[in-house]
Amino acid sequence: MLKNATNQSQGMLLFRLTALQRFAIGTLKVKEIVPYTSLTAIPHSHPTVLGATSLRGNTIPVIDMAKAVGYPPLTASELEQCFIVVTDCRRMLVGFLVRGIDKIIECNWHNIEAPPRTLGQNIFVTGVTTVENQLIQLLDVELLLSKVFPDDPSSLQPILTDIQRETLRPLKILLVDDSAVARKQLSQALDSISIPYFIATNGQDALDMLTHAADAKSPFDILVSDIEMPGLDGYELAFEVQNNIKLRDAYIILHTSLSSEISVSQAHQVGANEALTKFEANELIHAMLRGAEKKRSLKASA
Questions:
Q1: Residues 205, 138, 66, 84: is their CA dihedral positive or negative?
Q2: Which of 4-18, 158-172, 215-229 has the highest mean pLDDT?
Q3: How many domains does the chain have?
Q4: Max Cα–Cα distance, the chain, nearest Å
Q5: Distance from C-alpha of 129 to C-alpha of 103, rounded to nearest angstrom
Q6: Does residue 133 fall inside a structural domain?
Q7: Of 177, 147, 137, 178, whose CA–CA distance to 13 is shortest?
Q8: Would you state the pLDDT for residue 302?
Q9: Where is the CheW-like domain (predicted)?
């Protein structure tokens, strides 16, 4: 039952960046929604950062989300009618100023579809769905934040010994994430230390790859998957792997952009070996090394 409950637990916040078009983000990323308040300027900040506000003892940068994704920026006369959507993502609290809040709806994340080509090359959209006969675009908050607050290069560059590298190199590793920026981070981390890997962009494709590999007697050793994905999410993917005798030997590492104990707890409930808040390359590599050690121990005891 848990695998169904996890997908149903996340709703969708609908909001407006333009007068006509509605957008959405998953509610697990949303801490709260507050009316616009005056902001304190942040010197030398990104052009889309309007300033900072203090909320419950935290100083939170506030981004003009419309401007950040390529729509007309907010004007001074609009600010008083705007709302700040406070998110907890990529280990930071950030406020997004939006033109209007629509509502929160329940969502079947299996119904999220890939963006149609007619949307063009809008890289900030990870999926689309229809609500009340209107197209809703699901925004890639992680990608947006990576543009405004670039990662410290040191967090993307893993450090390991030659012995550790050679321990990982023979393993068959599958990386799964619907976010282009997250896939790039994962890929660059492993590329930088010459560790081979495979990539899937969603949970269902990953499950298919795992199944085909097992049927071909060449199973994956380590599965690294995002949790919050449309369709088959990371919880469900882990559940399916653990409940398939042909797949359950894979060491499962789930990662999430949410700084949430709940996410970590649920990850363990569905059978994941580890749960990480992304992204710190050394944490990921050392999780993989623990997976390699577990597989070595299992072989030794077989």
A1: negative
A2: 215-229
A3: 2
A4: 70
A5: 15
A6: yes
A7: 137
A8: 64
A9: 9-150
Residue 289 resides in a domain: yes
Supply the range of the domain harboring residue 173.
153-301
- Residue whose token pair is 């729509």: 71
* pLDDT at residue 190 tops 60: yes
Lowest mean pLDDT among 154-158, 194-198, 236-240: 154-158
Query: Running DSSP on this structure, what letter comes out for residue 40?
Result: B
Taking phi over 0 as left and psi of -120 to 50 as alpha, with beta for the rest, 147 belongs to: alpha
CA 60, CA 63: separation in Å to the nearest integer?
A: 10
User: What is the average pLDDT value for the chain, to the nearest integer?
Assistant: 86
Res 118: pLDDT: 67
**Shared-domain flag, residues 178 and 287:** yes
Among residues 126, 148, 170, the one where a domain terminates is 148
- Domain boundary, last residue among 109, 127, 148: 148
> Is there a single domain that holds both residue 240 and residue 118?
no
